[in-house]
Automatic annotation (TrEMBL):
Residues 136-165, 262-288 are annotated as: Disordered. GO terms for cellular component: gas vesicle. Pfam families: GvpL_GvpF (PF06386). Residues 150-160 have a biased composition (Low complexity). This is Gas vesicle protein.
Length: 288
């Protein structure tokens, strides 16, 4: 135990109820509360052989280890969100001992209180807009026609008759793709504006691409987060529901409610504290 470090999941005000006795965190250890002058840090012991500076740097390159740690981190934060309004800390935030955690609470007391005041009574909802793969690729009338399914004769009938015909089809496909993207962008901007009116704050995250995106999902047009009062969540979701089916080729994905992962910045300084971003939530299977 003497070699154990302190893993900190979140900071909050004293919860209204205890955490479930069977809850476990990173490495299977149960979390506990460390209180200092009105602030509570939720912590658990982790071995220095895994969370010391050098071992941790190596572990963060291991996607399996990272995903497992992120799930455990998120499980504790999610449980905490049922009894209070937590400020999630960054994945793998560790201190040498309890005194180090208390020093952090002391040094950042004013800023932490400001953030907790701001997110109190709120939850985070994530919203993504996807343009279907067929729409994102154009109308499919370019050089892909006849490539899958159908007879050889059908494929031949759709083949370009000349280089000029090929270029014409390519231009038409490009124009259709650009038009679909423009319509999707207008829809996403309007939706973001409408949703922001139900939120105390909103964040536009970079759109997802590459290995984070399922090839069948299409193209990510909007990747946003909203800090919504709990009492307004029903109206917020109803607004999204009214958009379903109104724009063929577009899909709206909603995740949450989450702890306020995207809103841990200081409302005055706009500087992120030790606290978190969407990383733990995303790696745990949610949306950033």
């Amino acid at each position: 135990m003497n070699d154990d470090l302190r893993y900190v999941y979140a900071v909050c005000r004293p919860p209204a109820a205890p955490l479930h006795a069977d809850l476990t965190g990173v490495g299977g250890a149960p979390p506990r509360q460390l209180t200092h002058e009105g602030l509570v840090a939720v912590v658990s012991p982790v071995p220095e052989r895994d969370f010391g500076r050098e071992p941790l740097r190596a572990h963060l390159e291991d996607l399996r280890w990272l995903a497992e740690t992120a799930r455990a981190h998120q499980n504790v934060v999610a449980a905490l969100a049922t009894v209070t309004c937590p400020l999630p800390l960054r994945l793998a935030t560790v201190f040498h001992d309890d005194s180090g955690v208390r020093a952090m609470l002391e040094d950042e007391s004013e800023r932490l209180h400001r953030i907790l005041d701001r997110i109190d009574g709120h939850v985070e909802w994530g919203v993504k807009v996807w343009l279907g793969a067929a729409s994102a690729d154009g109308d499919g009338s370019g050089d892909r026609e006849g490539s899958a399914g159908g007879s050889a004769a059908a494929a031949s009938s759709h083949a370009p008759r000349s280089g000029r015909d090929y270029l014409r089809r390519r231009r038409a496909g490009n124009a259709a793709r650009e038009e679909a993207l423009a319509r999707a962008d207008v829809f996403a901007r309007r939706l973001h504006g409408d949703l922001s009116r139900y939120a105390a704050d909103a964040r536009l995250h970079p759109v997802q691409s590459g290995p984070l995106t399922d090839a069948g999902s299409g193209r990510n047009i909007l990747n946003s987060a909203y800090l919504v009062p709990r009492t307004w969540s029903e109206e917020f979701l109803e607004l999204i529901g009214r958009t379903e089916g109104t724009r063929p080729g577009l899909r709206v994905e909603v995740t949450g409610p989450w702890a306020a992962y995207s809103f841990t910045d200081d409302p005055d300084a706009r500087e992120e504290p030790h606290g978190g971003e969407g990383a733990a939530r995303q790696d745990a299977g949610g949306a950033p």
